[in-house]
Structure formats: structure tokens, C-alpha cells
Amino acid sequence: MSPRSLWLRCETKEFERRAALTPTTSKALIAAGFDITVERDEQRIFEDAEYAAVGCKLVENNSWPEAPVEIPIIGLKELEESTEPLRHTHIQFAHCYKQQGGWSKVLSRFHRGNGTLYDLEFLTDATGRRVAAFGFHAGFAGAAAGALALAAQKKGEKLGLLTPFQNEDDMVKSVKSLLGGNGKGVKALVIGALGRCGRGAVDLFRKIGLDEHWDLDETKKGGPFQEILDVDIFVNCIYLSSKIPSFIDQESILAAGKGRRLSVVVDVSCDTTNPFNPIPIYNINTTFSEPTVPVEVGPGNPALSVISIDHLPTLLPREASEQFSADLLPSLLEFPESRVWTDAEKLFKEKLGEAVKAEGL
Predict the structure, then answer these.
(1) Termini Cα distance of the chain
(2) Which of 117, 222, 305, 333 is the most buried (most CB within 10 A)?
(3) What percent of the chain has pLDDT over 90?
């Protein structure tokens, strides 16, 4: 494997406009001696010409399977479902280390192709903190989406297609406008409010006129929480690592009946297929074209919907990409020798062993 080359693949997930490498970080890597190959991608927020201008080599869209096996492939979202063996080293979010749906099949592709996965979610520094994360923009965009869904619901409508905003200010102005000028009178609750994701959600709510949030101290008593049913918007921003009591469940929703205020749940954490999901009131990821899924609430009771989009930061694609890629850059400059990468490879081998056993390989 050549540690001085990276191949930026296109993103095939619908509506995904972010990039793991930006023209800015590509320029810095090239200055440090890297060869950067970039797949052409009309969906990406950055123009192909922006990469070419800083010295990247442009290649055809989705051509990474034919790339030299020694060049690591970097991207963001998971690859399209396939049984094709993976021969390359991949740097990406794979969503398969917490036994999510299909986890062992994803990892078995690396086993069959003798490839390696460095999962971006599990690149951590010496203190265990992730070296790069989209958390702030995920929370910010998730809170905005929740407010937009509430505005639509108050009109008796369903939230329609979500499209990226130019920047945070544009997003805030749009949300305030659709709420009638500001968020006054709207009650929101954020669990995980002190983390990256939670801080983003709280920041959006404060910018539209709200000022209320929770964090771990308030949730230590264990759920389900009546307090969640007494707000308009609930945003879940926790990082789930083990089983915990449900924050809200079908029984508590039905028991609240017509007295329930809660209208929108935004599960930014998106642990939809995780067996430990603390919001067991839905079972699918929603999309930008269909942002909400209704919850069964019983006859005659007020509507309740869930937003569970697993790439919310792409609503702010340029800002989110620049922040994430800049945070990742110091680790990329040390790829693959530093502790960040050796620890990630060790974790991959551990999870690969579990998948091989689960698949009977």
C-alpha cells in the first residue's frame, strides 16, 4: 500500500453532496507529497475544476474498483450493497461495527477480498475522542429539519423534499420564516446537548429563539421520560454504545393520548437497526425526499412523526465538508503509521473476526 496516495471516490448515496477531501485539504496533502486522485462527481458540492486547480488528477466517476490495489480509497458514506470482494484499503463510514443491519455481510466483503477498513467513526485520539466528526452540523441540520417538520405539521401538511442550504445563516432564516418569524412558543428538548451533535442542535434552537436543553445529568434517572412528551420537538444526539432504557416508547405515547404535546422526533444518532435503539417507535431511515415517517399514535390522537436521515450534514454540504476534512487532515498526513490508524486497523481486525464467525466463513 502506498501511504502517499489517496483516491477520493464519488458518493453514490442519493442527495449526498459532501466530500471527505475538499480542494483545500487536497492542496495541503499535495504540498506534503501526496498524489491525490479525484473521481468526477456532479453531485458533489465542490466542482471538479476546484480539485484540478490545486493539482488533483481527475478520473471517471465510480472508477475506484479498477484503481491500483495499493492506493487507499477515501469516501464518506457506505458503499452500495454488493457481494463483490473488496481488495482495497477503504477509509469511510461503514456503519457495521455496532451490529447494525447487514453488518457481517459488509465486513465479509473485506474478508473475501483481503481489503482493509479504516472506519471514520472510530478514528480516535489518545483521549478516545474522534479526530473528525460531522456531529455539530448533524445536530444543527437535524434541529432545523425538526423545526421545518413542525411548521409543516401545524399547517396540516407533511414535510416535503429537503434541499441543501447555502450556509447556516440561510438555514436559520428559512426556519424562522416558516415558523412565523421566530421560534417563540416552540418547546424543544435535546438529549446529548453537551456533545458535538447536541451543541449543534442547541445552537440552531437558540438562533431561532429557543433556549432549553438536557444532557446526561438530567437523564440519569432512566427513561421513558414524560418530559419528552411535553415538548414540540425532541432531538436525540447521544452516542449509543450499550443498551439503555428507552427514552420514549409506543406504550408511553399511547398512554399520553390527546394530552401529548410532542409532534416531531429527530433521531440524529440514527441507530435505526441497532438492537439497543432507545427510540423504538420507528424502524426505517428516512430520506431527503421523504424526511418523515409517521408513528402509530392510536385513533383520534395528535400526529407524531420521526426524522431519521443518516446524512443530515449534507444540508450544509460545503461548511460541513470543510470542517470535517480540516479536522481529519492532521491524521491523514500521518497515514497509516500513527496510533490513530494502527488502533483503527486493530479494531477492524477484531470486528472482521466477529463477522467471519457470524457468516460461517
Answers:
(1) 26
(2) 117
(3) 82
